[in-house]
Amino acid sequence: MIPHTRHANSPRSLISRRRRYQEKLERTIILEVPDGNGGYKSIKGRVMIDFWCDYNLVSRNFGNRIFENLDSAKPYIIVDSLGGEANAIREFESRWHCIDDPSIENPGLRFDPTMDLSTFHVMEREKRFDVILGYADIIKYDLLDIGKRPHFAAPAGFRSLRQSVDSTLGTTQAVCGN
Q: I need a surface site. Which of 33, 52, 67, 120 has the fewest CB within 10 A?
């Protein structure tokens, strides 16, 4: 009987290789908030990088790990859309930094070990995330590595314009395309 060997192009090895290069836009984040005694309280969680979110958000559950008495906070509208309103109950500033994921060989996000300062909003209801970093801070702290984004072909129907021919030059110019 021939022993089983894993082929380089087997579905499992292809999936394994794809996972190494797949950017999940999630990382581990450490938030630091003032503890009231001149120091900082560190809280670790998972962060999602969301280009479509205008704000930095913290889930209710994660907010309970930071603050006491969130139940007495008055809600305010943070998002009003066709899908309804989303309320936040507290706004706060926090120092934060993200930890890069070593399992991603070609990450599309970049973080440095320094602490950045941002404003966050604790959501009124429990959500399925710890922290979301929104568009403004993605741009402000240059978190997206543009050089790592996939290169796309020209969209269907794309056609370059004809080059103009300058007849005053007296030279023949080739015109490409229709």
A: 52
